[in-house]
Amino acid sequence: VTHSAFVIVGLGFIGGSLAARIRRHFPRVRLIGISRDRRKISAAKRRKWIDAGFTHPGKAFHQNPLDRKGRNPARWFVLICTPVDVTPKLISEVDRYAPSGTVVTDVGSTKQSIARWASRKRFRRIQFVGSHPLAGSHLSGAEHARADLFKGAYVFVTPTQVSKPEAVRRISSFWRKLGTRVLLLTPEKHDEIVSQISHLPHAVASALMHAVSSKMLRYGASGFLDTTRVAQGDPRLWTPIFLSNRGHLLKDLGRFESALQYFISALRGRRSSRVARFLRAAGRKRRESTSRRKESG
Amino acid sequence: VTHSAFVIVGLGFIGGSLAARIRRHFPRVRLIGISRDRRKISAAKRRKWIDAGFTHPGKAFHQNPLDRKGRNPARWFVLICTPVDVTPKLISEVDRYAPSGTVVTDVGSTKQSIARWASRKRFRRIQFVGSHPLAGSHLSGAEHARADLFKGAYVFVTPTQVSKPEAVRRISSFWRKLGTRVLLLTPEKHDEIVSQISHLPHAVASALMHAVSSKMLRYGASGFLDTTRVAQGDPRLWTPIFLSNRGHLLKDLGRFESALQYFISALRGRRSSRVARFLRAAGRKRRESTSRRKESG
Questions:
Q1: Residues of A in contact with B194 (CB under 8 A)
Q2: Nearest to B256 among A197, A208, A225 (CB)
Q3: A225 CB contacts (<8 Å, ≥6 apart)?
């Protein structure tokens, strides 16, 4: 992997964290950053995340940069780290300018819509397979980026029937070398999972904030703050995520509503043993989820 | 306050943490623990939380214990740290055996039902005013108790029209000396607040656990784990809390459902600007709640 060049498109929280981590794990590769915002490029250079930066993806390949040993990079590896709604446009631009055989992946939180788009599209030069590192935060922006964000995280790699096995292998190998745990699964299965463990909790936490009166907020202790933390996610990232995983999320919101209705009717009817059973089953499941993570960690 | 004796009824997570903190802040007072479980009494003695322990509240006062300087305690102060559904029974027992003028408070998470009960009841010897330290955890049991649990926490003290001002003053002063921030408010207002910032998030987190498939749990990252943490609360404590705050909680569950319905219909109709607005307002409110806490902290 040393004889490669990395192009990171988008130098926000994820792009910045990835650049920092790649720099740490592959100190000799050439790292090129792309951002429309020149200040982000300057900041990324200052923090030594990138060797060079451009405001347009095409520029990265025009330069045909040498690696740090003075060789031309044999292999290009492009990571698209942008909001999911602009990812297709940027992949298309990379396809227009990158050398043949360039491997491209993204880090978006939904995979079905980008996979469908990629299957329909005939790329001229690139090989694209989607990824999704499960390492988010309610924080966003390059100022919060950190190299250890991905340490021990799951990374979903989502090949389709049109994916080239060699691209899947290189992308998986890249993530493993960064110290993550790679799981291959279909884009459909991926979106089903993240709807439940990420998008549904986010929607619920946001609704909770709407249900609470502003005057009460100052009394919220750790329990309240934990339960609603994800509601702080950037709406510019999360709105397109929710819309692109609309089908799964609507189904899961329905399941959630049924569960809540069960609780409400037990409480309304003062059915204390039903309330207790509901809480006990939820608590048991929650404790299992922690212990499973520990086992696999 | 040094010339007093404290009786703590219930040596679980809250009772144990309180004993440890009282010991630290009032090293010379006599501390008596009451628990039906002899092992909890032995454990509390071993950890030096209490000087003596009994399985029945009556015994605490029979002994008429000396303080550590050999004086009879001039004033008794009783803290009931049990699940809310057994608190009335234990207050009644304390009233039967305690010396006249003994001040009694509890630490239960709901205050309206205990206040109503206390207003109807004619105590023979004690003066009761309810308290609620906002310092819980999803953990329970004496093994997790710790002296710093209450540090900087809000404590609600909830007098009613029948409360003796002297009792309110002594209870508030006690909590302040433990390093907490005391707020006086009516039992009704108290229950309205905790329904929103504690009971509603708990019910929602539990429903979330029911909505998620067991197979997906292993992929839950920090966002999911934070959002559902409170669902681990002990159902034996929480079922009576929910039932005794049923009115407020049902109202708040209704508000929550309306907010969620708004989101669902925006998502179903692909109204992306509505989804974004919903998320933005929720995020802004959540960030304000953190900053207000910081300001007041």
A1: 219
A2: A208
A3: B289, B290, B293
User: According to the model, what pLDDT value does residue B3 have?
Assistant: 63
Cα separation, A255 vs A267, whole angstroms: 19
CB contact under 8 A, B283 and A223: no
Q: In sequence order, which residues have a C-beta less than 8 Å from that of residue A274 and are 6 or more positions away?
A: A262, A266
Its sign, for the CA torsion B51, B52, B56, B57, is negative
Contact B15, B133 (CB under 8 A): no
For A185, residues 6+ apart whose C-beta sits below 8 A from its C-beta are: A156, A157, A158, A193
ipTM: 0.90
Supply the pLDDT for residue A2: 45
d(CA B207, CA A260): 5
A282: contact with B, CB 8 A cutoff:
yes
Sheet holding B103-106, edge to edge: B52-54, B30-34, B4-9, B75-80, B103-106, B127-128
Nearest to A185 by CA among A196, A176, A194, A174: A194
The confidence score (pLDDT) of residue B295 equals: 42
Q: Which pairing describes strands A181-184 and B181-184: parallel, antiparallel, or unpaired?
A: unpaired
Which range has highest mean pLDDT (A70-74, A129-133, B54-58)?
A: A129-133
- CA separation for the pair B89, B36 (Å, rounded): 14
Distance CA B67, CA A88 (A): 76
Nearest-CA distance B10 → chain A (Å): 21
CB–CB of A200/B212 below 8 Å? yes
pLDDT in tens, A99-144: 999 999 999 999 999 999 999 998 999 999 999 999 877 777 888 8
Segment 127-186 of chain A within 8 Å of chain B by CB? 134-138, 153-154
In this prediction the pTM is 0.90
CB-closest option in A223, A234, A267 to B242: A267
Backbone torsions φ then ψ of B88, nearest 5 degrees: -55, -45
Encode pLDDT of B144-199 as tens digits.
888 888 888 899 999 999 999 999 999 999 999 999 999 999 999 999 999 999 99
CA dihedral A95, A97, A98, A101 (to 10 degrees): 60
| A137: closest chain B residue by CA | B223
